[in-house]
Design brief:
single chain, alpha+beta, four-stranded antiparallel sheet, 54% helix
């Protein structure tokens, strides 16, 4: 079994440009939603190849579906002067993988 990610440089640049603009417009608040978008971006472009059969992965999270989770981690990040954001990024990946499926 192998994992293959199909991500082009142009996809990455486009994704980053959108989030940089959103971060400036929202004065950094968008950065609390970025990990959800980032993990979904990667997972949705990933396939699992098993015995020559390629099966796509799909992440079933949405950016605003877990607003309570975002608010809680925003508070933790502010109280810890940004250190909590590092843990937040890992927790979002855990959440994204647990809410993904192989088609």
């Amino acid at each position: 079994m192998n994992i293959k990610a199909d991500i082009s440089i142009m996809d990455i640049i486009g994704h980053l440009v959108i989030w940089v603009i959103l971060s400036f417009i929202t004065l950094g608040i968008a950065l609390f939603f970025f990990p959800y978008s980032f993990s979904k971006f990667i997972i949705n472009r990933t396939s699992i190849i098993d015995g020559g059969i390629e099966r796509k992965m799909e992440c079933d999270i949405d950016l605003f579906g877990n607003l309570g989770h975002v608010i809680l981690w925003a508070i933790i990040s502010i109280v810890t002067l940004g250190l909590g954001y590092i843990f937040y990024f890992y927790r979002v990946w855990n959440y994204a993988l647990n809410n993904s499926r192989v088609l």
